[in-house]
Amino acid sequence: MLLCAAALAEPPRKIVSEPPPQSTNSAMTADPQIVAALKEVSAERIQATIQKLVSFGTRLTLSAQDPASIESGHGIGAAREWIKAEFNRYSQQCGGCLEVKTDSFTEQPADRIPRPTVITNVYAVLKGTDPQSASRIVLVTGHYDSRNSDTFDINGDAPGANDDASGTAVSLECARVLSQHKFPATIVFLTVAGEEQGLNGSKHFAEMAKEQGWNIEAVLNNDIVGGDRNSQQDASVVRVFSEGIPAAATDAELPRIKALGGESDSISRELARYVAEVARTYDAGVKPSLVFRLDRFLRGGDHYSFNQQGFAAVRFTEYREDFHHQHQNVRTDKGIEFGDLPRFVNFYYISHVAGLNAATLASLASAPAPPANVHVLTKDLENDTTLTWNASPDGRARAYEVLWRATSAPDWEHAERVGDVNRATLKISKDNVIFGVRALDEQGHRSLPVVPSPER
Ligand SMILES: [Zn+2]
Description:
single chain; binds zinc ion
């Protein structure tokens, strides 16, 4: 077949690219109430909390919890009673706004549990003020149990100032500060035991939450956020770990995650990105470094118990750990100081981490519920993208934003506000980017984004 010359000629070259991002209102705006709350976070209060927790000698889960030990201020029972009393004291300062509760159970013998042991999680609930939003929960947790070199040593000192009185202090300080304010959704301030014996406390709590149908949108686990004063520490950074492929993903969900390149879009990863956005909006004094893995090598933490039940949960941990100061008997050996003592931690750093947690909890508890049933339409082969969703179930959304980023980008790159609608079409190919949709209330508080699932 003969082709005429014109058909062979290359057509005039056009620069073809995606349209420039229309990033309108893409940034979170600071809420004066949250700015005010952040100013209340106190390094002195955190120091007092940690010193009190260390004063119990050991908080090993297997240590004493009989009335005489509690009376004498030694062992995990005394720590538990003090935490309860502290939550109650905060509650008195806000007209009884906190409901202080325990989740107590007997763990049967296992690897690190030699005999039946009562484990008690202590928590305080700041109920949401909006009837439609109060069932939505954001939660902060730390573990109040400690250990030394021997995880069965029920008497030896286990100060656990960093691991994890620091995280316990974050939960308590968030409760003290945020209970002076009101939020539409519910905030739970949790401290768990049994972490060092095998995440027993958090496992029981997360299973209870799942069984009772709690609508937990976010879990912030603080474990080793003391900012150990070693020479390689960077006190301007806190690591935030988040799982990629969800531990709770079903056999039916896994192929879709693989097919769509969804390995970096678990609900926990979206929560980690949300923490990063909060840190850009509020100056807490510390910046999150997002680590895209569940946890550090050889280590685990309570966020995993929540991940296993399908909840979004991330772990905060200091930038650089000193392993001489964790899980060690207090001693000096060849000039090296071992043990998890208060003088190795940085109370200002912990107050900054507490501020970042408080701002994240407050932002989420102020925001509308995320949109529901978010879909990307895939009926036809086309280069535009149409997204659909149902209104936020708590009825507080006044607008929605579509977010997107290159598949190779770690964080959201663009946002477009699309108004109070349930459908949007963008001149961007769904093949090239990852989309999310989030809800905004009247003041501009953002919900967690939801990544759409394909709908034919
Ligand atoms: Zn720990």
